[in-house]
Design brief:
- The chain is α+β, with helices and mostly antiparallel strands.
- The protein folds into three domains: 3-150, Adenine-n6-DNA-methyltransferase TaqI, Chain A, domain 2 (Alpha-Beta Complex), CATH 3.90.220.20; 152-197 and 333-383; 204-331, Adenine-n6-DNA-methyltransferase TaqI, Chain A, domain 2 (Alpha-Beta Complex).
- Helix content is 36%, strand content 21%.
- It has helices at residues 55-60, 110-116, 120-127, 140-144, 153-196, 208-211, 260-265, 292-303, 321-325, 337-376; strands at 3-6, 11-16, 30-33, 38-39, 42-43, 51-53, 71-74, 83-85, 93-95, 99-104, 147-150, 204-207, 213-214, 232-235, 240-244, 249-250, 253-257, 271-274, 277-280, 284-288, 328-331.
- Strands 2-10-7-8 form a four-stranded antiparallel beta sheet, covered by helices on one side.
- α5 (153-196) runs antiparallel to α10 (337-376) and α8 packs across α10 (337-376).
- The termini are close together.
């Protein structure tokens, strides 16, 4: 007979992580697991973004160690309530205060609960308990009150075995899709490198400051408390951060990420064009070009270029304004620019069409996962 039990009552441990401030962190020691490591049903290593605390800080703050087999739940988006099992880690680890640590009791398999915390029903229940207007979150109390359907242990084992088998096949397909996406994202960059190798275009280098006007002095951040609903996009290092009323720019511009860590990680394009009314915070450099074709070429070139040698700063790597202005950019002879852009944009169109196909495939896989979870985690009779 299945039972319905609140999440906290399935646990021997149901606690929040530790409050770790930036000043408490170090470059080595005990791993700090963050909300970004928690994906839906899986743990993301993100070793390149790892944070640590020292043994002395661990003892001083009386931190809770996170061990293999625990379940971590992120109480922040996106989505709120996502959870994963903790794998075997190298050395000791703790987690942040916005994560809840779960250890299940003897009547509940952690693998079963991990699957249940991926189900559409669970996320629907979480959404009904979130709070916060600007940034949604769920409190540990509200998370603990969520009802979970629990079958007897033998049935939990059978469900886990069936889901393990089904998800293993789905993961093979996902891996193929992700591999295709990775190759697809390189199409435009490959086209940029190809035209750069063609000497017919008469390449000569010019510094950014000689072909554009830097408008960084006009940038202006707006605190969350002062933002109001509006139709003007508020841009940051990676794109639109929010929407506001009023604008400080009303023209075609090129934004370039100032965040050196993200430049090194290549997690998103480092340069992107905007047009029309906009507001820009101080995490993106702002350039104005008199020639829109040159602006488009510079955008493509920067996104295909490793700027590692232009980054400065250890704690917070940045592409500062001085180094950006001095950045050399290869420019073709003017009569070739349209041909070059035409070559690149053919590849861009193919890339965008392929991206749509991959997005559809990923949606189909998500729907399949949801369907399997509904089927396996719905009892005929729940008490």
């Amino acid at each position: 007979m299945w039972e319905i039990v609140s999440l906290k009552d399935l646990c021997t441990v149901f606690d929040d992580g530790d409050w770790i401030e930036t000043k408490d962190q170090s470059y080595e020691g005990i791993r700090l697991i963050q909300t970004g490591n928690i994906k839906v049903g899986r743990f993301a290593k993100r070793s390149d973004k790892s944070r640590y605390i020292s043994d002395a800080t661990f003892k001083r703050l009386n931190c809770t160690e996170v061990k293999e087999g625990a379940i971590l739940v992120s109480r922040l988006p996106d989505p709120v309530g996502r959870a994963c099992l903790v794998p075997a880690l190298e050395g000791k680890a703790i987690t942040a205060v916005d994560c809840t640590i779960i250890r299940t009791n003897d009547s509940t398999l952690p693998q079963y609960l991990n699957y249940y915390l991926q189900s559409p029903e669970y996320f629907s229940l979480v959404q009904g308990r979130v709070t916060g207007a600007t940034r949604q979150r769920i409190s540990r109390k509200n998370l603990g009150d969520i009802p979970i359907k629990i079958p007897p242990l033998p049935e939990q084992k059978r469900i886990v075995e069936r889901l393990d088998k089904a998800f293993a096949e789905i993961d093979k397909v996902k891996t193929a899709v992700w591999h295709g996406e990775g190759n697809n994202r390189g199409l435009v960059n490959a086209a940029v490198r190809a035209v750069l190798s063609d000497k017919r275009f008469g390449w000569e280098y010019e510094n950014i400051e000689s072909i554009s006007e830097n408008l960084d002095s006009m940038r202006m951040p707006i605190s969350k408390s002062k933002r109001v609903s509006g139709g003007v996009p508020y841009y940051g290092a990676s794109g639109v951060v929010d929407y506001v009323e009023g604008s400080i720019f009303d023209e075609n511009l090129l934004l370039i990420s100032e965040d050196g860590a993200n430049l090194l990680m290549r997690t998103y394009p480092i340069a992107y064009s905007i047009s029309g009314k906009s507001w820009v915070n101080n995490h993106a450099h702002v350039l104005r070009f008199s020639n829109m074709e040159i602006q488009r070429w510079v955008e493509y070139y920067l996104n295909a270029t490793d700027l590692k040698t232009h980054i400065s700063g250890m704690a917070q790597p940045k592409l500062n304004q001085k180094k950006l202005n001095a950045l050399p950019v290869p420019l073709p002879q003017e009569r070739h620019i349209q041909d070059i852009l035409g070559i690149i944009e053919v590849h861009k169109q193919v890339s965008e069409e392929m991206a749509c196909l991959y997005a559809k495939k990923e949606l189909q896989l998500k729907n399949l996962v949801d369907s399997i979870l509904r089927q396996e985690l719905t009892p005929e009779k729940a008490a």
